[in-house]
Amino acid sequence: MRTFLILMMGVLLMNCNTATPEIKDQTTTIYFIRHAEKDRSEPGEKNPSLTEKGLARAKRWSEIFKNITFNAIYSTDYTRTIETASPTAYTNNLDIIKYEPEELNTIEIFKKGYENVLVVGHSNTVPKLVNKLLKEDRYEDIEDNNNGNVYIVTLTNQEVVSVNLLTIK
């Protein structure tokens, strides 16, 4: 009888649902933009603010992104990038996370489980960050007079599945 009970317990245990839960595909979309038009009236100024046109563009970015719920907004620690990110951060009720371009780990951003992230950088740092994700040198530095590029990189399970480059006038 004891052997029978042990055998039955074994059969019951084998029939229990011990399968691991299905792992859902995780998708994160990162929107990379360059800061808006900066004040160039003092050529030696290392940390200028945005011009009126730049402030208007920053507001326009928040309008363009109005249907996207951002989980995080990253900006370098410069007045022009923070001013560019601020309207969108305000709309999403988020604090701006400051980063150093050479230290930004986009895979760590993905691992945080964010769905949508905005990264505001510079003419040379934005393409480098996108290229780093792509693991290829696809994009060159942004032209100095171009403040309207948005690079949209979508990752699923840490792999890049799409990249789009749009220019907004």
UniProtKB/TrEMBL annotation:
The keyword NAD does not apply. Residues 1-19 form the signal peptide. Gene3D superfamilies: Phosphoglycerate mutase-like. Keywords: Signal. The keyword Nuclease does not apply. InterPro entries: His_Pase_superF_clade-1, His_PPase_superfam. This is Histidine phosphatase family protein. It comes from Joostella atrarenae.
